[in-house]
């Protein structure tokens, strides 16, 4: 049943805990159990055995029968799956991508409960387990990067959601309707909120109302529902029509790829000097990097606003940066090991990436936590979150379960009620 996944996962965790099938060595070394006992149970001895006893007490309520009642999944299947997971010490790899975690009230607890199983089996940071995503993703240093923003935008990051890890753009039209602010100029980039987001009609109302959104420019590779309500539709290139770098968590490697506009490269190789993608792309498709560079120079032509300097050539003072210079500097200065690798082949870093299209920054990034800990406040895997308690949510300090907005109690099946599960984004 949608949203009940955390109950199932915690029932599996409970089986591992009650039967002592978890990786004691890993949990004792890499979980912040001492902080948990200190903050929540200061009256008992701060020993790992006491922590295990507390675990058994806290999770005893998550029986397979309880999970079956919540989810509809047979208790014996839950037990069977848990026992298989218990055998996979250090080799249990599972993660959440949108689905239950993003589509339900308390969905974030699903992701946390699943990761709890990774932790209990010692399957974090090791071969066969899961890794923090930053360990297998690389973001290169860019030339003349501006400093971080100093102004907090409550239209993007509202006070009501202090722990959201992405901006809450889905709520923007509602905030505008409430009078929380106004947008002078709004760019939607490869973004179709009228179709993609909940309550698309609120987006239509906001985009049509100039008292809320003064000017709307839609950067998009295809015509969309949102395009109908734009002052400018700016054709963007697809992958083969623009330059950019990319890096994904595809496997146990930290790598960087370089994408190039196919037709522009082909024309250059034919001896035609192309300096602007509009000369090579179909229609009016303009590579967005070139667009932003040009727009910034037109907004701040003399540099007095402090904008233009971030779009000037790092090689020729006062000259507008070109796409070639942008990526040349990045590959020369922002990718460890690339200049040396290129030199081995008698190439410059940019030439190497133009030839091969990708570069491995680091292979097999396992065990990085052994050197500097995990990327958390405690440098350990946080079974216990003091942050959540400090912000006023003590009920969520450890992995727990909360019923979703479409729980079986809410959806009256006896009255032909049903749960709609949309499979589109």
Q: How would you describe this protein?
A:
With 425 residues, this protein is mainly α. It has 3 domains: 5-130 and 369-415, Dimethylsulfoxide Reductase, domain 2, CATH 3.40.228.10; 169-236, no CATH class; 240-363, no CATH class. The protein has helices at residues 5-18, 24-30, 33-40, 48-58, 64-71, 75-87, 99-103, 107-120, 172-177, 193-196, 200-208, 262-269, 288-299, 323-333, 338-344, 349-356, 369-372, 386-390; strands spanning 183-189, 213-220, 232-235, 244-246, 253-259, 358-363. Helix 1 (5-18) packs antiparallel against helix 5 and helix 1 (5-18) crosses helix 6 (75-87). It is found in: Cell envelope. One of its GO terms (biological process) is anaerobic respiration. Its main location: other. This is Molybdopterin oxidoreductase domain-containing protein. GO terms for molecular function: 4 iron, 4 sulfur cluster binding; electron transfer activity; molybdenum ion binding; oxidoreductase activity.
Main-sheet strand order equals 1-2-3
Largest pleated sheet: 3 strands, parallel
Unreliable residue runs: none
Overall radius of gyration = 26 Å
Pairing-aware structural class of the strands and helices?
mainly alpha
Shape: globular
Spatial separation of the terminal alpha carbons? 19 Å
CATH class categorisation of the largest domain: Alpha Beta
Helix-strand topology string: HHHHHHHHHEHHEEEEHHHHHEHH
The domain tally reads 3
Going by CATH, the architecture of the largest domain would be: 3-Layer(aba) Sandwich
Specify the CATH homologous superfamily of the largest domain: Dimethylsulfoxide Reductase, domain 2
Oligomeric grouping of the chains: single chain
- Strand proportion, as a percent range, falls in 5-15%
User: Mean pLDDT, as a whole number?
Assistant: 94
The count of DSSP E runs of length 2 or more, i.e. the number of strands, is 6
């Amino acid at each position: 049943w949608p949203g009940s996944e955390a109950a199932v996962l915690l029932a599996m965790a409970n089986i591992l805990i009650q039967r002592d099938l978890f990786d004691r060595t890993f949990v004792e070394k890499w979980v912040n159990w001492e902080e948990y006992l200190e903050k929540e149970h200061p009256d008992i001895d701060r020993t790992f055995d006491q922590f295990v006893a507390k675990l058994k007490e806290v999770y005893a309520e998550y029986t397979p029968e309880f999970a079956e009642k919540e989810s509809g999944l047979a208790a014996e299947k839950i037990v069977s799956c848990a026992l298989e997971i218990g055998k996979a010490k250090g080799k249990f790899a599972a993660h959440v991508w949108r689905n239950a975690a993003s589509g339900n009230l308390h969905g974030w607890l699903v992701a946390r409960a699943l990761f709890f199983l990774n932790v209990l089996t010692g399957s974090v940071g090791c071969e066969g387990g899961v890794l923090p995503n930053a360990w297998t993703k690389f973001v290169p240093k860019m030339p003349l990067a501006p400093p971080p923003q100093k102004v907090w935008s409550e239209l993007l990051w509202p006070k009501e959601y202090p722990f959201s890890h992405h901006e809450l753009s889905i709520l923007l039209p509602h905030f505008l309707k409430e009078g929380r602010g106004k947008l002078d100029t709004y760019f939607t980039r490869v973004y179709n909120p009228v179709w993609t987001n909940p309550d698309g009609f609120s987006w239509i109302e906001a985009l049509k109302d100039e008292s809320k959104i003064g000017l709307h420019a839609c950067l998009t590779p295809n015509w969309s529902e949102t395009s109908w309500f734009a002052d400018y539709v700016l054709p963007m290139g697809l992958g083969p029509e623009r330059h950019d770098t990319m890096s994904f968590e595809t496997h146990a490697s930290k790598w960087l790829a370089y994408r190039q506009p196919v037709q522009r490269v082909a024309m250059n190789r034919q001896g035609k000097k192309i300096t602007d993608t509009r000369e090579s792309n179909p229609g009016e498709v303009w590579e967005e990097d070139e667009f932003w560079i040009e727009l910034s120079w037109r907004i701040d032509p003399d540099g007095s606003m402090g904008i233009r300097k971030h779009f000037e050539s790092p090689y020729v003072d006062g000259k507008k940066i070109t796409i070639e210079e942008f990526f040349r500097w990045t590959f020369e200065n922002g990718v460890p090991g690339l200049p040396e690798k290129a030199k081995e082949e008698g190439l410059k870093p940019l030439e190497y990436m133009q030839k091969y299209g990708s570069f491995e920054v680091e292979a097999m990034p396992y065990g990085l936590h052994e050197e500097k800990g995990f990327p958390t406040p405690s440098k350990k895997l946080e079974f216990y979150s003091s942050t959540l308690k400090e912000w006023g949510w003590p009920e969520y300090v450890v992995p727990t379960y909360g019923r979703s907005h479409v729980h079986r109690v809410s959806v009256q099946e006896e009255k032909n009620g049903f749960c709609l599960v949309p499979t589109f984004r």
